[in-house]
Amino acid sequence: MKTISNVVCPFCGSLCDDIEVDVDDNRVVKVRKGCAISVAKFTKYNEERIYKPRIDGREASLEEAINEAVEILANAKYPALYGWSCTSTEAINVGIEIAELVGGVMDNTASVCHGPTIIGEQDAGISTCTLGQVKNRADLIIYWGCNPAHAHPRHMARYSAASKGRFVKGRKERKVIVVDVRKTHTAKAADIFIQIKPNSDFELLTALRWAVKNGELEQEEIAGISAEKIEEIADMLISCRFGALFFGLGLTMSAGKARNIEAAVNLVRELNNYTKFVMVPMRGHFNVTGANEVMAWATGFPFAVDFSRGYPFYNPGDTTFVDVLTRGDCDAALIVASDPVSGFPAEAIRNLAKIPVITLDPHETLTTMISKVVIPTAIVGIEAEGSAYRMDAVPLRLKKLVEPPPGILSDEEVLKMILKKLKERVK
């Protein structure tokens, strides 16, 4: 048995890099320092695995599956490539080259989660920093529309509220504010909980910004919060030495969407006239930030990139995978490290089931069940190495801990095989 230290956890956007894993006889037998989700990811990775490629439900060789995938993509007039948040940045880079070659649309899961964050940042900019700076310096933490106690279990202990920093020693030296529509487990651990009315984030953010500017609030209540309370919170924000606003899907997927992010950016910008304040999105999948980063530096756009014109074209709401599917525009799909069938709108799923789908995934999912071609792949961070970007856009290297099942290749290797044969086919 061997112990591997400083392992990066390939689950959520926190990418905790202090995990210790015991490996015996090519199996992960024990995990230390990880949260409950991390332990389950490392120890139960072999459950519901796919071990053989499939074409139309029958077992096939890897070569047959690759050839069938190439035929589908080469014959498609407008294929869509989607997913990419649970694989390596190296695989994503190959995927972009495939999308450009076949003239399809390349989208990642940010379009259904933090896409509004990116749009808001594009419109208004962002004042941000690394999680290490928050850990060492922040004495005021805001969690807005997120519940890290459930979604990012070690975030508060490692990077924010309860972390031991260089200049801020721990929880007693920090104030924590939670803004949400319901009292979550994170809210129970906060110093102040602000329960707002659903879909009123924009109003509260705007009111806070006005109060920070020392403006007089004419209404007695905004977003379900009294004017007096809003002014009290504004005073807390101004008087901190270093503040950090972490926000989640409660802000990006409620009414206002990108305008909510723009309002938050403007609030943080205003606060920087008085103190130091930053904001960081709470990203979900372990490399969804990487998907945005790689697509941005390869194409100029972070998601929903359409290559059908012969050059990258970006128009969220038109070129996102959900919209393309709902309209019934695409005639083939390549899904990598994602399960859109489990969460997409019904009309989009119905249209997806009508077209040939190629899925690369280590596990059985609802999407693999409707796929014409299924190619099992190795799990990045356990059976394959690769790089990923943390939620604060810091790149980290994921390690290979064990060997994958016989004949199973990584996403990157499979995609390179598809790309090579596509180039031969196009010529």
Count of DSSP-assigned helices: 17
Q: How would you classify the helix and strand content by structural class?
A: alpha/beta
Can you tell me the overall shape?
globular
* Strand runs, count: 21
Report, as a whole number of angstroms, the end-to-end distance: 50 Å
Protein architecture, described:
There is one protein chain. By secondary structure, the protein is an alpha/beta fold. It has two domains: 206 residues, Rossmann fold, CATH 3.40.50; 167 residues, Dimethylsulfoxide Reductase, domain 2 (3-Layer(aba) Sandwich), CATH 3.40.228. It is 36% helix and 20% strand. The chain contains 17 helices and 21 strands. The protein is globular, with a radius of gyration of 23 Å.
Structural topology:
Blueprint: E1 2-7, E2 19-24, E3 27-32, H1 36-43, E4 54-55, E5 58-59, H2 62-75, E6 79-83, H3 89-102, E7 105-108, H4 115-124, H5 131-137, E8 140-144, H6 148-151, H7 155-158, E9 175-180, H8 185-188, E10 192-195, H9 201-212, E11 221-222, E12 225-226, H10 227-239, E13 242-247, H11 249-252, H12 258-271, E14 276-281, H13 288-299, E15 305-306, E16 313-314, H14 321-327, E17 332-336, H15 346-352, E18 357-360, H16 366-369, E19 373-375, E20 386-389, E21 395-398, H17 411-426
Parallel strand pairs: 6-7, 6-17, 8-9, 8-13, 9-10, 13-14, 17-18, 18-19
Antiparallel strand pairs: 1-2, 2-3, 4-5, 4-19, 7-15, 11-12, 15-16, 20-21
